[in-house]
Design a protein that fits this description.
There is one protein chain. This protein is of the alpha+beta class. Helices cover about 25% and strands about 20% of the residues. It contains eight helices and 15 strands. Helix 1 crosses helix 3, helix 4 packs antiparallel against helix 5 and helix 6 packs parallel to helix 7. The longest helix is centred in the last third of the chain and has 18 residues.
């Protein structure tokens, strides 16, 4: 009769939880209301760094709405992780904004009342304080493609699925191939946080069968640019009622045009994170991309630059309401400079910050569309 955690009321707004295992930030943990960053030493899970207050929803014309990165507030041992998660959720339930839906996420509760207030209030709910956060390092926020052997000795294959859409198109028959593999019953299927697909639990003997099918239907081998394999697009038009512009159906075509520029400057294999959405609500996590494109109207996008390759920095508005030709012109100049002026191993997002193309956004409340 009574929900044991929520009580009589639901939360003020949706509440997202994610777990990341360094060195891979493949769920974009900084975008979560609550994130757990696993701290593993010599193969043993010691606990989790706790992150709070991430979220990307925003609205054109309302400067009091903005994307925000989560803050790491401490460390918790594995046996206390669920207790901490429940108490963080309860703090939001009691103090979140229930009058204005666009101000109802945990990120706004923290910015309104203060991070220090939040940590003190959490300790009251818990009856103890979190330990100091442990050191960790992320090296990327995308998926690691290809074959990998798991700790159980079985194989896992991460496949690129453009826009997350499983279909047969051109010479690539992805839908047919996956149907053939499913019929063999030699693999499980796992969706990644980056719109891709993992075929898992494959034995050595079954691996050969899977490879044969993927080759037959044009899935493997495939040469992808570093940009395309780090691309994400929301569904946008014509599926989403919130969208102002295309994304999933358009980004693959735009990427092909961008790849011509990348080839010109010998950057085709360089990994660059690009994300496109049809509106500012942030479903494709565009605010973490090194190149973010957000639809303003059909055929026109705001261009954002300067996110980090590891997903721990917001990007910044560079140019507004650009059409395709203008987007390509801007990127041509930027890639030309990047190819000739970058430091050794410097990522594109870091380059545009270092060279002053855009300023770094430190706090979400300073973000502007």
């Amino acid at each position: 009769d009574v929900e044991p955690l929520y009580g009589k009321h639901y939360l003020p707004r949706k509440f997202k939880i994610g777990v990341a295992i360094p060195p891979y930030n493949d769920i974009d943990v900084y975008s979560q209301d609550l994130g757990f960053i696993a701290i593993v030493e010599k193969g043993i899970l010691k606990g989790y760094n706790v992150l709070v207050g991430g979220g990307f929803g925003s609205t054109f014309g309302r400067e009091d709405t903005y994307p925000r990165l989560g803050d790491v507030i401490g460390f918790v041992s594995p046996e206390k992780a669920i207790d901490v998660a429940e108490k963080i959720l309860l703090v939001q339930k009691e103090h979140g904004n229930r009058q204005d839906r666009k101000q109802a996420r945990l990120k706004y509760t923290i910015d309104r009342l203060g991070l220090e207030w939040f940590k003190k209030e959490l300790s009251v709910y818990l009856g103890y304080e979190l330990e100091n956060a442990r050191d960790f390092r992320f090296i990327r926020n995308g998926d690691a493609f290809g074959w990998h052997k798991g700790a159980n000795g079985k194989w896992f294959l991460t496949l690129f699925v453009e826009g997350g859409r499983v279909k047969d198109e051109g010479n690539i028959f992805l839908k047919t191939a996956l149907g053939k593999i499913a019929a063999l019953r030699v693999s499980d299927f796992r969706l990644t946080g980056n719109q891709n697909l993992v075929l898992g639990q494959i034995t050595d003997a079954s691996k050969k069968k899977v490879i044969a099918i993927l080759k037959k239907y044009g899935i493997l081998p495939v040469k992808l640019s570093g940009l395309r394999q780090n691309s994400i697009a929301c569904v946008a038009l014509n599926t989403c009622a919130m969208a102002f512009a295309e994304a999933e159906r358009y980004l693959p075509t735009l990427n092909t045009s961008i790849e011509s520029i990348l080839r010109k400057y010998e950057l085709f294999e360089d990994e660059i994170v690009i994300r496109m959405t049809g509106c500012p609500n942030g479903c494709g996590r565009p605010y973490l991309a090194e190149i973010g494109l957000i639809g303003k109207s059909k055929g026109h996008y705001n261009l954002y630059l300067g996110g980090s390759f590891t997903g721990n920095r917001l990007n910044t508005l560079y140019k507004e309401t650009l059409n395709e030709a203008q987007i390509l012109t801007e990127l041509d100049g930027l890639f030309k400079a990047y190819a000739s002026e970058r430091s050794k191993d410097e990522k594109f997002g870091d380059f545009v910050i270092r060279t002053g193309v855009v300023d770094e956004i430190v706090e979400g409340k300073n973000f502007r569309h």
